[in-house]
Amino acid sequence: MYAQMITAEASDEDPKLLEEFQARIDRDEKIEPKDWMPMAYRKTLIRQIGQHAHSEVVGQLPEGNWITRAPTLERKAILLAKVQDEAGHGLYLYSAAETLGVSRDELVELLHEGKMKYSSIFNYPTLNWADIGAVGWLVDGAAIVNQVALQRTSYGPYSRAMIRICKEESFHARQGYHAIMQMAFGTPAQKAMAQDAVNRLWFPAIMMFGPSDSESVHSEQSMTWKIKVRSNDDLRQQFVDQTIPQIEYLGLDLPDPGIKWNEERGHYDYSDPDWSEFFNVIKGKGPCNVDRLNDRTNAWEDGAWVRDGLLAHGNKKAAARTAAE
Ligand code: FAQ
């Protein structure tokens, strides 16, 4: 189904329908699954929601790696709950994508074949416990900035999924900041670990918002359709502005010498990340891309017996129902 969709031609779409569709978007009406929508709108949503779902699921790996090594029982319970939440977010998002006519199995297959992306950030390793605090604080923090804006996205099921996800993400960011605060206010060795985590994760975190507006391929059309309601650079600036005072409060060094308050702009100036690194990572050449995809494909294959069992049970129940009718 999805394969046919992505090769479908949009050129024979009725201009009147297209005009009415855009008028609905301009009036801030939500588009619902059974409404008419341009094929390119549907495809853009499938790409973005699918990538987003994959990010939630792949995003469990760098943190899941630390569940067995969390320093206390309390931290272990918190981390376990957070990682489980990410699986739930993946499910809401795959369900939202399914309303557009693509199955979860199809999306997963495209991910495993390297034909769909997931967020660049999850291709970086989590090397010490402070990284887990930094992921919650910086990575979930960046995800929230993006996702709060997406609560207003024009596609109803995506927008509603975002509202629920944002509530849970707030807990994730709080637990991350709390964990890193303990390290930053702890022993000199713990503080050094916190600094090291911030140094390594700062630039990858600000890359999460995507390329600069001038390089972004999809932004213009996605903003016309209000799939995206704020630009990549606009959201990145908001994240930088809200995070610098938090780094200062922790007593950690700013990870970029270019960071300074700009009175005229009313924002912090900061240095661009290394965009060549970003484009390499999203092409599959980041430090952990191969491991992440292997882990996901192995998990999918190892779980085949569960899916088969559920399906057999479901089929048996359906057959019993039909026989009883
Ligand atoms: N990573 O034209 P644009 C989370 C690609 S959730 C990888 O600007 P667009 C929760 C882009 O796909 C994090 N690829 O693209 C959590 C396109 O390539 P394509 C995920 C990226 O779509 C926390 C090309 O570059 N959140 O972390 C990235 O208009 C902790 C050109 O870019 C979402 O997915 C990237 N960072 O804007 C879970 C939010 N950026 O497809 C576990 C929803 C860009 O043509 C633990 N998505 N690319 O081959 C969005 O808001 C948008 O898709 C953007 C990109 C803003 C990410």
What can you see in these coordinates?
- Helices cover 68% and strands 2% of the residues.
- The protein is an all-alpha fold and 325 residues long.
- It has a single domain, classed as Ferritin.
- A two-stranded antiparallel ribbon has the order 1-2.
- Helix 7 (129-150) runs parallel beside helix 9.
- It is globular, with a radius of gyration of 21 Å.
- The two termini are 32 Å apart.
- Phenylacetyl coenzyme A is lined by residues 47-48, 51-52, 55-56, 59, 86, 117, 119-120, 135, 139-140, 143, 146, 207-211, 216-219, 222, 228, 232, 282.
Strand content: under 5%
Give the overall silhouette: globular
Number of discrete helical segments: 14
- Helix/strand structural class: mainly alpha
Q: Please tally the β strands and state the result.
A: 2
CA(first)-CA(last) distance:
32 Å
Runs in which pLDDT lies below 50 for 5 or more consecutive residues are: none
Which properties best describe this structure?
binds Phenylacetyl coenzyme A; 325 residues; mainly alpha; two-stranded antiparallel sheet; Ferritin; 2 strands
Brief sketch in words of this structure:
The protein has 325 residues and is mainly α. It has helices spanning 2-7, 15-26, 39-58, 60-64, 73-98, 104-112, 129-150, 156-184, 188-207, 219-224, 232-250, 275-285, 289-302, 304-324; strands at 260-262, 267-269.
List the helices and strands and how they pair.
Elements: H1 2-7, H2 15-26, H3 39-58, H4 60-64, H5 73-98, H6 104-112, H7 129-150, H8 156-184, H9 188-207, H10 219-224, H11 232-250, E1 260-262, E2 267-269, H12 275-285, H13 289-302, H14 304-324
Antiparallel strand pairs: 1-2
Helix pairs in contact: 3-5, 5-8, 7-8, 7-9, 7-11, 8-9
Pfam families: PaaA_PaaC
Protein name: 1,2-phenylacetyl-CoA epoxidase, subunit A
Keywords: Oxidoreductase
